[in-house]
Amino acid sequence: MKQYLAIDIGASSGRHIVGRAENGKFVTEEVYRFPNGNKSQGGHLIWDTEELLSHVKKGIAEAVKKCGRIDSFSIDTWAVDYVLMHGDKEIFPCYAYRDGRTERAIAEVHGTVPFETLYEKTGIQFQPFNTVYQLYADKLSGRLNEADGFLMLPEYLLYKLTGKRSCEYTNATSTGLVNAKTHAFDADIVSALGLPERLFEKRISQPGKTVGPLKAEIAAEVGCDMTAVLCATHDTASAVLAAPVACDFSSPYISSGTWSLLGVEQERAHTDADSMRENFSNEGGPRFTFRWQKNIMGLWILQSARRELGLDFAAAEALARANVCGALVDCNDEIFLAPESMCAAVREKAGDLTDGQLLYCIYASLADCYKRALRAMEEKLGKKFGTLNVIGGGSRDKLLNELTARAAGVKVMAGPAEATALGNLMVQMIAGGEIKDIGEGREMIGNTFPLRTFE
């Protein structure tokens, strides 16, 4: 019986989950979990890639120790961040997307290629940390002078384990440099911005492609040889693969974690002015599909406030339930991206709230953002949504699910919570010949993980 390892790394934690297909269902076991977060260095926020790689290897070794032979593995992370390369050497640091280094770059990029043109070509919404702005900031600082390539973070970790470079489609689209029609890096944008063409010579691959075996020394270190496979390396793309309800290009989802990604799968990108005005994104999915979605600041706001108040999840929810109030904030306001005090940022926008009211305000504001995004999608597509599949860690949040169902007037179907790891495993199982296609994989997930309903 084949066994697969999903390494799912989020901005706040990572986990290693071993899975196999058995009697038409997924059987999974979490074998390793580790904390993650930005580090401060020289006034910037960075990722400690050496520490990440160490945890990745420790988790692989733990998977082998607990479960025996692993046939293949794959890695997914958040999007947009990358490591610059010069030959086989890294050009550090690996900046974190919450770092504020792109302000000048954004103005210069849009002065050269108007955002309307970027959106028409790529379909990627404006966010100040999009890879296109980060790379341009690297150009301004001179960091690109020696670079001959760059690897998105999951592909960088795979490279360190296998020695093979790759460029996976779903994550490549998050750069804001991939043409939505040709599915390749847009040469006109690259040229206009003066980015070195040598950075974009990699062939973009679809999920399911084999990367290669572990390096011999890595295999010896972890106790087993295994093959690396490209999953949908952008974690949201993997998560949406595991959404049981999102199977007919008409049922919306929320991938609910540090970010809330609310959208619907589409067979083509919407790159028109209305979609741009609503700041919807068209992120690539397997088989050149698109996730037409709105990126909402998400549970980051709630997580930050909880930490600041010293409350665990249950205590924060209970306090919010006991302090219902009518205050709302725009969760997409950039003030919430990386404030010194999240509570102070919320109070600046919502007024003088008690701690309980502040927490309820965050919950209600997230639900309100979801409602507004759904209404804009309904208007654009000319249809009314009846259900909303909430996947990821936020699917466990009863209060948020209740408020979302009430605000949006939809039936909320919650689960699975570990959607990203399941989507990662699904692609490996398809590549391994154990699952026919995505539809069969979603059916298996629905049979394995019953959904909870909120109306």
TrEMBL record:
**Pfam families, per database record:** FGGY_C, FGGY_N
Keyword vocabulary terms for this entry:
ATP-binding, Disulfide bond, Kinase, Nucleotide-binding, Rhamnose metabolism, Transferase
- Protein name, as recorded: Rhamnulokinase
Q: Which stretches make up the Carbohydrate kinase FGGY C-terminal domain?
A: 253-431
Single GO term (MF) = ATP binding
Q: Report if keyword ATP-binding is assigned.
A: yes
Q: Which domain of life is it from?
A: Bacteria
The family annotation for this protein states: Belongs to the FGGY kinase family.
One GO cellular component term of this record is:
cytosol
**Residues in Carbohydrate kinase FGGY N-terminal domain copies:** 4-241
InterPro entries of this UniProt entry? Answer: ATPase_NBD (IPR043129), FGGY_C (IPR018485), FGGY_N (IPR018484), Rhamnulokinase (IPR013449)
Q: Which GO terms describe its biological process?
A: glycerol metabolic process; rhamnose catabolic process
